[in-house]
Amino acid sequence: MSYTHPYQDADFVLRQIVKFDELGADAGLDEANMDLAVAVLEEAGKMGSEVLAPLNWSGDQAGISLGELGVQEAPGFKEAYQQFAQAGWLSLSVAEDFGGQGLPNVLSTAVNEIWQSANISFALCPMLSIGAMESIGHHASHALQSAYLPKMASGEWTGTMNLTEPDAGSDLAAVKTRAVPNGDHYLVTGQKIFITWGDHQMTENIVHLVLARLPDAPAGVKGISLFIVPKFLLDADGNPAERNAAHCLSVEHKLGIHASPTCVMEFKEAVGYIIGEPNKGLSYMFTMMNHARQAVGLQGLSISERAYQQARVFAKERLQGTRRDGSRIPIIEHPDVRRMLMLMRASCEAMRALALVAAAEVDRARYAQAAEAQAMHAARVELFTPIVKGWLTELSQEMTYLNIQIHGGMGFIEETGAAQHYRDARILTIYEGTTGIQALDFIGRKTLSDQGAALALLLAEIRTTAEDLRATNTLHASILDGLESALARGVVAREWLLQSAPSDANLAGSASVNFLMLFGYLCGGWLMAKQAGLAQAQLAAGEGDAYFLKNKLITARFYAEHLLPRTQGHLAAMLAGSESTMALAEDAF
Asked: What is the pTM of this model?
């Protein structure tokens, strides 16, 4: 049930792959260096292991309830949240003008891994608040920013995202919630479903971001506006006062994340304030959604890391089988158990590297001085976001499954806690856009729309890494061969898509998930090989922790031999084409 932050691996990625010191210097953030990062991660690790992790199991068992005052959070959560907020954890990446610390997004992401691993139900609350602050900070008026951001950054108030409706799931063009002008505000009426942490008693106010339509709005997604609808209206001094007409009607009974309330929210002429310009709400909300998509991808890593740690401890302690001398042996000595543990370890390290590299691209796009550099990094963010969200969350299903498998029959018993991680992980491939939606975004808006230009730059960078590693020729052959083979498959996939998609309307949709997964494994292999090269260089120079660095080489080799070959299967499925897929579907259904 315990959790320990894998600080060495996070430090290695931030220091060697992200090059956090250089990032901070380039951004003009004098205090943003590895000394600070190490101190922040150390304190976050304590908070995660000592305060949040102990509430993970109890929160799952107790769940939440809906009463006269609204949603009542799980026991211990309010006290933990107050401690969390008072420590300033919500303000890491918020602008200093609004009470934040103005630190890079990638450091906030590294810290958020800890919260999500320690207690994913709890961590969903600050995750949504951070996303809401991103949207308000980028698009709201200065008056709205001044009124809401300082209190949200301090953690005194939380934030939510209200998109989905009963008749409008992922199809936001069907949103029916309406907003009618009324003096200096709007009256918002409608119902939203699946609203994470839509209500609770942990803070004195909740700031809902709500998609709604103005009376004269055009049809479809072009007619959606974004509004701030607070739970309590503010008085002249900016403090919560009158209760707004925004209420939780019911809470969902879910497979997992039991301590995270998923609310049906009703707005009955609730007072709302428009963010930015009318009818541009969807683009504004995408600021929050893109942040949330990378954050959910991070959850895939986090729950996998938690499951891996639990499986490793169990495998060391569980005795089964005997040696020739009759002594009992722990199951970690069984080859197949080691195989499963290595799959989990290698996957977690690859996911962590990709999540942090993608988060750093957000910083580089934000702080770039030259327009060309800004555009390049922004395009890389767009490219990485669906991969992080789709690949990491899909992989987490396998990792939490392996945890149960290593536990054997005990994994199927709730009391061990292995089943909770499996249940909690299941939502990750669904909310903030299903894997299919991420894949369509990746293959369509992120590849076909620019004729594969951004993807070509990524492939070129991976090729440079492969060539540099081959030139040094110090790594195990399977790492080099595996990366080069997977890279070749990525090149084939891109070229085939660009050549074939224009003549087949169904091809992109049929190939999209395999296309995304291929590039997920390829990006993971690229960063694992890159880490192996850096680890080998440090070992040769007599620097660093030799034990940790040697394990890096082992894990990179395992990834290359056991996970990179999966790119072949995804490419083969892509090349099968859409014609057989559609024909089989028609025959079958």
From this structure: 0.96
CB 527 within 8 A of CB 353: yes
Least confident of 96-100, 331-335, 415-419, 486-490: 96-100
pLDDT digits (tens, 9 = 90+) for 237-285: 999 999 999 999 999 999 999 999 999 999 999 999 999 999 999 888 8
Query: Residues 30-39: what's their mean pLDDT?
Result: 95
Residue with tokens 């953030």: 29
In angstroms, rounded to a whole number, what is the distance separating the alpha carbons of residues 447 and 519?
A: 12
Q: How far is CA 140 from CA 124, 295, 313, 435, in A?
A: 23, 22, 48, 30
Q: Are 467 and 495 in contact (CB under 8 A)?
A: no
- Provide, rounded to the nearest whole percent, the portion of the chain with pLDDT above 90: 91
pLDDT given for residue 586 in this prediction? 60
Q: Is the pLDDT of residue 199 over 90?
A: yes
Pick the catalytic residue: 134, 394, 432, 484? 432
C-alpha distances out from residue 149 to 91, 197, 238, 274, 355, Å: 10, 18, 12, 15, 26
Length of the chain equals: 589
DSSP conformation letters of 166-231: TTBSS-GGG---EEEEETTEEEEEEEEEEEET-S-SSSSEEEEEEEEB-TTPPSGGGG-EEEEEES
Please give the Cα distance from 478 to 483 (Å, whole number): 8
pLDDT computed for residue 346 by the predictor: 98
Residue whose entry in the numeric block shows the structure tokens 């959604």? 289
Q: Give catalytic status of residue 432 as yes or no.
A: yes
pLDDT computed for residue 81 by the predictor: 98
Query: What does the pLDDT read at residue 172?
Result: 79
Q: How many angstroms from the chain centroid is the CA of residue 359?
A: 10
- Report how far residue 279's alpha carbon sits from residue 298's, in angstroms, rounded to the nearest whole number: 31
Assess contact for 417 and 407: CB atoms under 8 A: no
Amino acid letter, residue 49 = S
Pairing of strands 246-251, 240-243: unpaired
Element at 158 (helix H, strand E): strand 157-162
Mean of the per-residue pLDDT values for the chain?
95
307, 428 in Cβ contact below 8 A?
Answer: no
For the chain, the C-alpha Rg in angstroms (whole number) is 24
